[in-house]
Specification:
Blueprint: H1 2-16, E1 28-33, H2 35-41, E2 42-49, H3 67-78, H4 84-92, E3 105-107, E4 110-121, E5 129-138, E6 143-153, E7 159-176, E8 180-188, E9 191-199, E10 205-221, E11 227-232, E12 235-241, E13 250-260, E14 263-272, E15 288-297, E16 303-318, E17 329-338, E18 343-346, H5 348-351, E19 357-361, E20 371-374, E21 377-380, E22 382-383, H6 386-399, E23 406-409, E24 414-417, E25 428-432
Parallel strand pairs: 1-17, 3-15
Antiparallel strand pairs: 2-4, 4-13, 5-12, 5-16, 6-13, 7-10, 8-9, 11-12, 14-15, 16-17, 16-18, 19-22, 19-25, 20-21, 20-24, 23-24
Length: about 425
């Protein structure tokens, strides 16, 4: 009997031991490789955006320093000036010194673009989700990928509330039995009769009970998902790995830097000394010519891309009525999709958007540009700034002799040559090159 009671107690305690429910990833899972399911349920697209221009950092002044730093600066400047007016002028100037750069080459073949990859879940069942995806972008052989940074994706953080689970088990046992042995003596007059009585049974009364309670609580929350980027064989791969309750849909944004392999070199010109500090028009011999080499992309085709992706798709067979995924019976499909069509990401016009300008003449039907000649050769006079072209055109109107078709400048190191359609300098115009 005691052994039986012990077995009952152990059984009750074993039944009362709880296990987690809300913290499970699923109730059961079956992994299946099926490229068709991935293609039917997941769509990936891509396009480029122009990167936002960075704001210039304003120079620091004395007011950006701490009181102790301001005191030290005033003390040092006071040692180098003779009067208060010079001191005030120095204190009001910027502390940041702009480095002097003599730029001779401007490389326009290094391009920074912002790429957006759009991931869509085509399933109509709310419980089905994309749990993992790796997108590969092949931009072809016309460019070379250099780097990828500032990767970001955006998900709202949603608190869905708390889920509680509790499990209580209780058992009890009650028994009752008795045993008695005795004798009975009966007398009637002179006669005496003896009799014996007995009853058999087990004398036991008791109660056995066991109780155990298991509870757990989970905060359901959506949060931001980490990304990873790699460049291999001139291909860009962006990888996302989700967590419980996260469907990897939406936009993935990344800044990439690439180089256009084919390029042309074009000299552009700037001129100093057109107007002196007294606002007097400079003489041709005093004009200083600076030549800058623009390395421009030579693009004949649009930049196209082939998109492929590997993904895991979580299809819920049962248990989709609850937000918690712990009771889900799922089929986890995985596969690869390769799009054969090339999508146009960047039109060639967008890659050759550097504005260049030339000086020509309104009465010239062919609109040939003004040329410039030096000991190294002769070519078109090209500007990379409309303001520079305008300022030089104003100077020419003042200093050019219409009876000639050339003008020597910069101590005769350079010569301006008018086109064949030149009539008068007053007809000069500025046109895109």
């Amino acid at each position: 009997m005691r052994n039986s009671i012990l077995i009952i107690i152990i059984s009750v305690l074993c039944l009362s031991c709880g296990s987690g429910h809300l913290t499970r990833r699923y109730k059961s899972v079956e992994s299946i490789k099926d490229d068709t399911v991935i293609k039917d349920n997941i769509t990936v697209g891509a396009y480029f955006l122009e990167t936002a221009k960075t704001r210039p950092i304003p120079p620091k002044t004395i007011f950006d320093l701490s009181p102790k730093g301001q005191n030290s600066l005033i003390t040092e400047i006071s040692k180098k000036v003779n009067n208060s007016s010079d001191l005030i002028k120095k204190l009001g100037s910027n502390l940041s010194i702009k480095p002097k750069k003599n730029i001779r080459v401007i490389d326009r073949t290094i391009v920074e673009k912002q790429i957006v990859l759009s991931v869509s879940n085509n399933s109509h069942m709310p419980a089905n989700r994309i749990s993992k995806i790796n997108i590969t972008l092949d931009l072809g052989d016309d460019i070379k990928l250099l780097s990828c940074n500032k990767i970001a994706t955006s998900y709202e953080t949603l608190d869905l509330g708390k889920l509680n689970y509790s499990n209580t088990n209780q058992a009890s046992l009650t028994g009752n039995a008795s045993t008695a042995i005795g004798s009975e003596k009966t007398s009637a007059g002179d006669d005496t009769t003896n009799s014996k009585t007995s009853s058999n049974g087990a004398g036991l009364t008791g109660t056995v009970s066991a109780s155990s309670t298991f509870s757990e609580e989970v905060m359901l929350r959506q949060r931001r998902v980490a990304l990873n980027a790699t460049i291999s064989d001139n291909k860009l791969s962006l990888y996302q790995d989700g967590i419980v309750g996260i469907d990897l849909t939406g936009n993935i944004i990344a800044d990439i830097v690439f180089e256009i392999k084919d390029a042309n070199v074009l000299p552009v010109y700037t001129f100093k000394g057109l107007v002196d500090k007294n606002k007097k028009i400079g003489e041709p011999k005093d004009i200083i010519v600076s030549e800058i080499l623009e390395v421009l992309p030579n693009v004949t085709n649009d930049i196209r891309a082939t998109i492929s992706y590997e993904a895991d798709f979580r299809e819920v067979i049962s248990g989709d009525k609850t937000i918690s995924e712990s009771d889900d019976v799922i089929k986890l499909y995985h596969g690869t999709v390769s799009n054969e069509t090339n999508e146009v990401l960047i039109p060639k016009e967008k890659l050759m958007n550097q504005k260049l300008w030339k000086l020509s003449f309104s009465k010239d039907k062919n609109k040939f540009p003004v040329e410039i000649k030096s000991v190294l050769g002769q070519g078109d006079l090209v500007f990379n700034s409309w303001d520079h072209a305008r300022d030089f055109a104003f100077w020419l109107i003042e200093k050019f002799d219409d009876t000639k078709n050339i003008l020597e400048i910069n101590n005769r190191k350079y010569t301006l040559v008018m086109p064949t359609g030149f009539t008068t300098i007053k007809d000069i115009i500025i046109l895109p090159y």
